[in-house]
Amino acid sequence: MGILSWIVVGLIAGFLAGQVMRGGGYGLLGDIIVGVVGALLGGWLATTLFHINAGMTGITLESILIAFVGSVILLIVLRLLFSARRRL
After folding, report:
1. Quick one: residue 2, left, alpha or beta (phi over 0 = left, psi -120 to 50 = alpha)?
2. What is the pTM of this model?
3. Contact 43, 56 (CB under 8 A)
4. pLDDT tens-digit readout, 27-67
5. What string of DSSP letters covers the chain?
6. Would you say the C-alpha torsion 4, 9, 11, 12 has a positive or negative sign?
7. In Å, what is the CA distance from 39 to each residue of 3, 46, 58, 85, 87?
8. Rounded to whole angstroms, how far apart are CA atoms 1 and 59?
9. Closest of 59, 77, 57 to residue 17, by C-alpha
10. How far is Cα 65 from Cα 71, in angstroms, rounded to an integer?
11. Rg (CA), the chain
12. End-to-end CA separation in angstroms for the chain
């Protein structure tokens, strides 16, 4: 997948994950970063745990769903880390 595809999929997945998770959001650039890192995380999880390789070839519904799931997982982890830091 080309860099432009990663950015587009990351933007879509980051935006959708931000809408589903609600809360303080990270802005457009933050959503892209969360989406791209979430896409990497989701792709790794899909390949490692579920042996799914076909959806990682471009801007498809499957790649957006995989990136979305990875982005949601990443947002959960980030919120847990940052809420724990505020308590300390």
Report:
1. beta
2. 0.83
3. yes
4. 778 877 888 898 888 888 888 888 877 555 678 888 889 88
5. --HHHHHHHHHHHHHHHHHHH-SS--HHHHHHHHHHHHHHHHHHHHHHHH---GGGSSS-HHHHHHHHHHHHHHHHHHHHHHHHHHH-
6. positive
7. 12, 10, 12, 26, 30
8. 8
9. 77
10. 10
11. 13
12. 41
Residue 72: per-residue pLDDT: 92
CA distances from 5 to 42, 45, 57, 63, 70 (A): 15, 19, 9, 10, 16
